[in-house]
Amino acid sequence: MKKRLQHALALSGVLLSSVCAFSLSQAHAQSQEALSSSPVLLPVPAHVSLSSRSVPFQGVKVVWDGKATALEQRAVARFLGRLEKLHGGSDNTEPKTVLHIRAGQDPAYLTVNEREGYSLSVKGQNIQLEAGGPAGVIHGLATLLQLVQPGPSGRQIAEGDIQDAPRFSWRGLMIDVSRHFMSVETMERQLDAMELTKLNVLHWHLSDGTGFRIQSLRYPKLQDIGAHHQYYTQSQVRSIVQYAADRGIRVVPEIDIPGHTLSLLQAYPELAAQQPVLVTDAAGRACTTSSADGQTTTNCSRRPNLNNAALNPVSPQVIDFAANLYAEIGRLFPDRYIHSGGDEVQDQQWLDNPAIVSYMKANGYKDVPALQAAFTAKIEKALAAQGKIMMGWDEVSEAPIPKDVVVEVWRNAKWTGSATKAGHPVVVSAGYYLDLLYSSANHYAVDPDATRPANISAEDAERLRHQTLDRLERAFAPDPDMAPLDEAQRKLVLGGEAPLWAEIVSDEMLDARLWPRSAAIAERFWSPETVQDVDDLYRRLPVVMNELESTGLLAREHTDRMIAELTPSNITPLTVLTSVTVPVQNYALNHLAGPTGDAMLKSPAAIASPDSFSAIEFNALAKRYAAGDKSAAAELRASLSVWAANDAAYTQVATTPQLQLAEPVSKQLSQLALIGLEAMEPGAHNRAWHKKAQHLLAEQDLTLIDPTSFAGKERVIPPSGLLIAIVPGIHALVQSAR
Predict the structure, then answer these.
(1) Alpha carbon of 292 to those of 280, 298, 379, 698: distances in Å?
(2) Pairing between strand 118-123 and 406-409?
């Protein structure tokens, strides 16, 4: 056994020299394999019937059955441009395929009532796309792009019929640009990817404690002081809104009040519930200033809570300010909805202010939620007078507000139940928080109108009933005993959104943190409820990710650049390590980043993806091997040999503190790979070997964070923020060893 292992590791020197190229092109290779067999559709259409017969799809002539709008013509131009990027230009000078498009007029375009359905029919060289309006044309072209395949003689397309429409009308991404600013170009890339995956709402979180990111002409201090030199001009905002509208995407802005307002209050401190207001020093630390005996004292902290600062809810000046600000911002966004935030007001922000407490007593407000409810009602009236419909996080559902106010459920399904019972439309973000760093499979298991996670076991449910939870855990933990929504309540669920809070997401990280997981969530929002096959999802996701990157996303390019910046002398070891590790979950990464802040943005954990396609493939092969299918043995050994040899090379390039924090994980990966190789060797595996293997695996099991427990509670959080994703496959190999 030992000699064969030595031989395998010797061969790994050759393998290691090319593993970088393998790792970076694996998704592309998987996608090409899938493309050569059958079209990969995501989201899965409502009804699809494809023939095994394919026909050439070379030159394309577009024929409009009726007059096309300029918007629809631009959609076709994007389709043809993407077609060329994915499959090259046509070899034929004369178009042979005719694409007939018939689109109705839709006065409700870019509203929750727009006509998004379409049908596609491919028969010979004739393709018919029919849609009820511009949205259906855009969605139909996205599906048509996925139907086109490379063939032996060039582009081809399968014959068949598709009738499609979304399950939910609100299918959104929430992108936080306050914590880390995202450039206009970065935002446009996400909108392109949203178009191709049929997401139709960009919830743009423009203000929070860290920065106020939109220009105000009426209150210029908001950008002069609160934006820290990074904000969108009103011209840029209009441009992004138009860019989105062209792609069938509504833009809903969020200006968060009355909490999460530090950046606003730095500009206008007279509106604050508490004095003094935090300021920022040259080192980026948050500080408080106080005056006594004619002297000003400044105290700075490296770990302040930038979310705590709140507006004074009893000040008429605050109400006027908010109404004026929303009126100005609202004119930049045609959408009827505007998000006013409303979440996580810290009680002491108001209770430590004697004037606010006196106001509460005089007006009969028993607690902070009651006072906030009254404040929310005033803001809603101001927005309604401006022709806007309020949207807010689920705390707003406790206020006496009209039923058309949309409640965004961020905590758990309890709030979906209570809000819909009160008659409010609901958008569900609970279960889709991308900054929790769950895999696509975790998010895919959550349904917007479900009140209990599909993957919660009876054991987990019982544990939740008796577990002591803190505030954050209570917010996200499911209620194992909640009754299903009735039919009337289900109709009020408009759909869902996938939020990405950006405390630990930089501009160059955004593409990889949003995708491909947003594509998996897009399918959950669009496709029939019965589409639930996780294995099939993971078969299709690499293909879709390759398409998104070929047509504009820069996830792979940015990841490559981050690796090259961290290990310029040799990119291979870090590439190997991050290809089979995933970042820790449940805000454990935020916890690790506390002492060093933005240093985490330049670390292996910032590079590793929550979905490791390499590990997913390995784990599936190992499971097959353990079940008796030995055809994958050579591929398993090749991968294990590379991982086993990688630690020696990683040690040589780990020259910075962040890289050195990952050295234990690198060593453990090597040890696990060696155990996997030994498990595949013929011959007896004695008790001592099994004990050694189980001990190593048990160490890894301790680092796996339970999705129902936050910040690594009762678990070991690796200082690097990395978890080894091939552990399930090694478990399978060890269990199969005799």
Answers:
(1) 20, 11, 37, 58
(2) unpaired
Contact (Cβ atoms closer than 8 angstroms) between residue 541 and residue 613:
yes
Give the Cα separation of 106 and 137 in Å (integer): 11
Bridging pattern class, strands 154-164 and 148-151: antiparallel
Helix (H) or strand (E) holding 532: none
Q: What is the average pLDDT across 411-434?
A: 94
Give the C-alpha separation, 443 to 433, whole Å.
8
* Cα within 13 Å of Cα(490), Cβ side: 10
- pLDDT-derived band at 62, boundaries 50, 70, 90: very high
Q: For position 143, what pLDDT does the model report? A: 98
Q: What share of the chain has pLDDT > 70, as a percent?
A: 85
Helices (H), 36-160: 70-87, 134-147
Q: Do residues 645 and 16 lie in contact, with contact meaning Cβ atoms separated by under 8 Å?
A: yes
Q: Is the pLDDT of residue 320 over 50?
A: yes
Does the pLDDT value for residue 61 go beyond 70? Answer: yes
d(CA 157, CA 124): 9
Q: Is the pLDDT of residue 23 over 70?
A: no
- Which position has the token pair 């499911």? 478
Residues 140, 166 contacting (CB under 8 angstroms): no
Are 448 and 496 a contacting pair, CB within 8 Å? yes
Could you read off the pLDDT of 373-382 as tens digits, one per residue? Answer: 999 999 999 9
Angle at 113 between CA 497 and CA 47, to 5 degrees: 75
**pLDDT of 275:** 86
Question: For position 463, what pLDDT does the model report?
Answer: 66
- The long-range contacts involving 374-377, CB below 8 angstroms and separated by at least 24 positions, are 374/313, 374/399, 375/258, 375/313, 376/340, 376/342, 376/401, 377/401
Confidence of residue 25 (pLDDT cuts 50, 70, 90): very low
Q: Are 324 and 275 in contact (CB under 8 A)?
A: no
Distance CA 610, CA 589 (A): 12
Q: Which of 419, 421, 367 is nearest to 392 (CA)?
A: 419
Q: Give the three-state DSSP class for 55.
A: strand
Closest of 690, 699, 698, 673 to residue 734, by C-alpha: 690
- In this predicted structure, the answer to whether residue 295 has a pLDDT above a threshold of 90 is no
Q: What is the pLDDT of residues 251-294, one digit of tens each?
A: 999 999 999 999 999 999 999 999 878 765 545 566 665 555 55
Strands 426-428, 170-176: pairing is unpaired
Burial 582-618 (b: 16+ CB within 10 A, else e): bbbbbbbbbebbeeeeeebbbbbbbbbbbbbbbbbbb
Coil, strand or helix at 262: helix
Sign of the Cα torsion 417, 420, 421, 422 reads positive
**Beta-carbon count within 10 A of 190 CB:** 24
All residues at 6 or more sequence positions from 413 whose CB lies less than 8 Å from its CB, including other chains: 428, 430, 450, 451, 452, 478, 479, 482
Beta strands in 486-613 (DSSP E): 493-500, 581-583
| Rounded CA separation 705/437 (Å) | 11
Specify the residue for token string 């996205």.
Answer: 142
Backbone angles phi, psi at 301, to 5 degrees: -130, 140
Comparing CA positions, the residue from 376, 381, 378 lying closest to residue 393 is 376
Give residue 36's pLDDT band: very low, low, confident or very high (50, 70, 90): very low
Structure tokens at 393: 């996080």
Average pLDDT, the chain: 89
What's the whole-number mean pLDDT along residues 524-543? 97
CB atoms within 10 A of CB 471: 8
> Angle 391-394-395 (CA atoms, 0-180°, nearest 5)?
105
- Secondary structure class of 581 (helix, strand, coil): strand
- Length of the chain (residues): 738
Q: What integer pLDDT is reported at residue 451 of this predicted model?
A: 74
Residue 639 CA to its chain's centroid (Å): 29
Least confident of 242-251, 452-461, 702-711: 702-711
CA-based nearest residue to 579, from 464, 722, 446, 685: 722
